[in-house]
Structures are given as structure tokens and as C-alpha cells.
Amino acid sequence: MQAKRRRSLAATFALLPTWIAAIFVYIGTMAWSVRLSFTDSTIIPSSNYVGFAQYAKLFKNSRWLASLENVLIFGALYVGGCLALGFVLAAALDRKVRFESVFRTIFLYPYAMSFVVTGLIWQWMLNPTFGIQATVRALGWQGFVFDWIVNRDMAIYTVVFAGVWQGAGLVMVIALSGMRGISEEQWKAAQIDGIPVWRIYFSIILPQLGPALAASGMLLSMGVIKTYDLIVAQTGGGPGYSTEVPAKFIMDNLFERQNLGLASAGATVLVLSVVMAVAPFRYALAMRARRRGAY
Q: Which parts pass through the membrane (predicted)?
């Protein structure tokens, strides 16, 4: 018993620095930011409380409202596009094609890049002066127009293209590992019944990949909420505020406008958004584990 207590005490002391860092660095700074959001702090923190004035100002700010709309559009299309394309790529590789490892590496490689590199690549590709539009026109199609990146109404979709190009590889790997865990007997039974291959994947394989795709969707959603570097590298938030996102709004108000109170209010709203996104997923996992324990 004493040896067991010693091991437990040693483990506690080993984890003590991590606990201290979590409490003071993460939770402490988060609480400090929430406190500042209720003050009129500018470049220097202030103790002059103004209640919810910063939040009222935040949600009256057209730039902040535009950023919320943009992140919703980007998030829905980015997560949905990555899940759809990743599943299709996984299904293609699951057919045991030749050079599978090469294709798997090619499809996963964009995910290894930073969002800054991805944003710059797509900025160059979509630039009307020397990108896809200029290349196609040089081939003789002078009327070809593909200037979405400088079009207020379409610019956010170019960011979606870049995000899906990078993130689909992650979904592909997770979905492929799930597919390889499905028994061969199901395939044999479906083939004996004459079910087409595409129908097998959508009606039999896809429902069994629910947990894997849910985990992928959660990882991608977390990335959506904190999207910043992709926007800065690809569009800079423009044209105008057409690709502005909450993280960029917060950073601009913090470092350029020196409006610490408003930036803290935006950061608090962003943290609450993360909690609202993660909580249902964690609750579902806990309920599933509890049901399994009951049986």
C-alpha cells in the first residue's frame, strides 16, 4: 500500500508543473481577458468598469458582424467540403489502387503545410494578373474571367477552396483507417447481393464511419473558430471586410487600434463559441461511454 501511495505521490509531483501552467497561464489569462472586457481599457489595462458596454459596442460594429457572417460561411463550407472530399479520396484509396502510398502522401501533404504557406500559394494562383486567369488568357481564351479573390461577393469562397485543399487530407487518413477496420464479410455479402460499389460506400460503410467523421469534423471546427493566418496570408481580410474573421478583428483591435477592452470582449465571445462547439460533442461521448458501462 505504501509503495502504491509513493508512486501516486510521485506522479502528482511530476504533474504539478503542468497543473500550475494550466491554472495560471491558461485559466488565469482567460479570466484576466474576461475581466478586461468589462473595462474601458485601451492601450493600457484599466480598472474602470463599464459593464457590458464593450459587448454592446462589439455587436453594433459592422466589421464584427461581417466577420461573424464570414466565419459561418467559411466554417460550414470548409468542414462540409473537407468531410465530403476526404471521404471520396478515402473510398478511392480503399479500392487498393496501385501506388496507394504515393497518392496517400500527395493528398496528405497539404495538411503538413502551415496556413500561411497555403494562403500564399492560393493568393498567387488566384491573382488575376499572373494566376489562373492570366494563364488561361495566355492560351488564347481572352474572355476568361476568374477574379474571385478581388470580388467582394466571391472572395470568401476562395478562402474555402484553400482550406478544403489543405484539410481534406486529414479526413482522408482518418476515414481510410476506419474503412480498413470494417470486416471483409460485409463486402462479400454486399457483392453477392449485387449492390453497386458506390452504394456500398454510401449505405453501408459511411454509417459505420460516424465516430471517425465526427472527430474529424470537431478538429476542423476548432480550426475554423481560430482561423487567422490563412486569411492574413491570402486576402488580408479584403476586399474591404469581405473575408474578415473574428480572430483578425481581435488582433487588429489589440495591436493596431490599441482597443484592449473591445479586443477582450471579442476574445471572450470567441472562447464561448469554442465551448459551445466542444460541449455537445464531449457530452455525447460521455453519454455513449455511460451507456456502454451500463451494459
A: 12-32, 71-93, 105-125, 154-179, 200-220, 260-285
Predicted local confidence at residue 155, as pLDDT: 93
As a whole number, mean pLDDT of residues 50-60 equals 90
Query: For the stretch 203-231, what's the b/e string if a residue is b when 16 or more beta carbons lie within 10 angstroms of its beta carbon?
Result: eebbeebeebbeebbbebbebbbebbbbb
Residue 160 has a pLDDT of: 94
Dihedral of the CA atoms 125, 126, 130, 132 (nearest 10)?
80
The position carrying cell 489569462 is: 29
Alpha-carbon torsion angle 76, 82, 87, 90, nearest 10: -170
pTM, rounded to two decimals: 0.84
Domains of the chain: 61-244 (1.10.3720.10)
**H or E, element range at 91:** helix 62-94
Report how far residue 176's alpha carbon sits from residue 39's, in angstroms, rounded to the nearest whole number: 50
Asked if 173 and 84 count as a contact pair (C-beta separation under 8 A), the reply is: no
Provide the grid cell at 1: 500500500
How far is it, in rounded angstroms, from Cα 251 to Cα 153?
24
Q: What CA–CA distance (Å, rounded) separates 81 from 170?
A: 12
Do 242 and 18 form a contact (C-beta atoms < 8 A)? no
Q: Rounded CA gap, 160 and 79, in Å?
A: 9
Average pLDDT over residues 77-94: 92
Rounded to whole angstroms, what are the CA distances from 164 to 15, 25, 80, 104, 107? 38, 33, 9, 16, 11
